[in-house]
Write a structure and sequence with these properties.
The structure is a homodimer.
Chain A lengths: L3 E2 L12 E2 L11 H4 L10 E7 L5 E7 L1 H10 L3 E4 L4 E4 L8 E8 L6 E7 L15 E2 L14
Parallel strand pairs in A: 3-8
Antiparallel strand pairs in A: 1-2, 3-4, 5-6, 7-8
Chain lengths: 149, 149
């Protein structure tokens, strides 16, 4: 994947700053953390994905225990596709990868929250940055999405 | 419920600022918006609740079509309790009410995102502000939760 230039700093010397490709950072979680997660009758738990820094909620998808373990161990988001009945790693095909920076489970242990660095165009297969790009009551609401307002 | 004082402004006169109680604002959504929402086999859709302004993800709960309509029509969050098999309005007992500021549905129409003004202590029945107060890998991760870092 290409390196992204950020700010050419023209007139301030011959150097330019180049942002490095995000690095996947595994999260070392004890089995006692995993034991707090409750999977539903299908062995799945919903996982909310939020963008690090902006706070924008990007998407929600499902994980089983194996995809949760892969996510923590690789620092990338892995989900379980209920329609295809297979694991998928976000961005592996599209290039729009997610690098996990924090991972949480809720008070009941039945929902996950992944805070990620989102690479590329965004999280949504439509090309939108977030899957939540349509507001009840019309497009004017979109301007105020989440913390990015 | 009590009014909250914010900033006594000592030494700047005899007045102090008092924040008003949040006002519930209905969202007028056409039936075509509602028709884009897909409910699961139990007639439910997961609803993510995010705090307006901070961007903090507070909780996730389930709505059926009736609780979604009540949410939009009243500007308060209504959910369906799967364990009690009844509607509940967040904060009606605890006082920790949620006032909806924006409401979104995702690209597949099978997940909702409600951006709310959270009243009182917070969203979690444990007394924490967010239900996602436990991080995989330990409490040190909590400091960087979402956009509030």
């Amino acid at each position: 994947m290409p390196w992204r230039r950020k700010g050419s700093r023209a007139g301030r010397g011959s150097t330019c700053r180049v942002d490095p490709v995000p690095v996947a950072t595994p999260i070392s979680a004890p089995d006692s953390d995993l034991a707090n997660v409750t999977f539903n009758a299908e062995g799945l738990v919903p996982a909310i994905v939020q963008e690090h820094g902006t706070g924008q909620v990007l998407m929600m998808a499902w994980m089983n225990e194996d995809s949760l373990r892969r996510t923590l161990e690789t620092g990338r988001t892995w989900f379980w596709s209920r329609s295809r009945q297979e694991h998928w790693c976000k961005g592996e095909t599209s290039g729009d990868r997610q690098f996990v920076r924090q991972a949480y489970y809720d008070c009941d242990g039945d929902t996950l929250l992944l805070v990620v660095e989102q690479e590329g165009r965004g999280a949504c297969h439509t090309g939108e940055r977030t899957c939540f790009y349509r507001a009840f009551g019309g497009p004017s609401e979109r301007r105020a999405l989440g913390a990015a307002e």
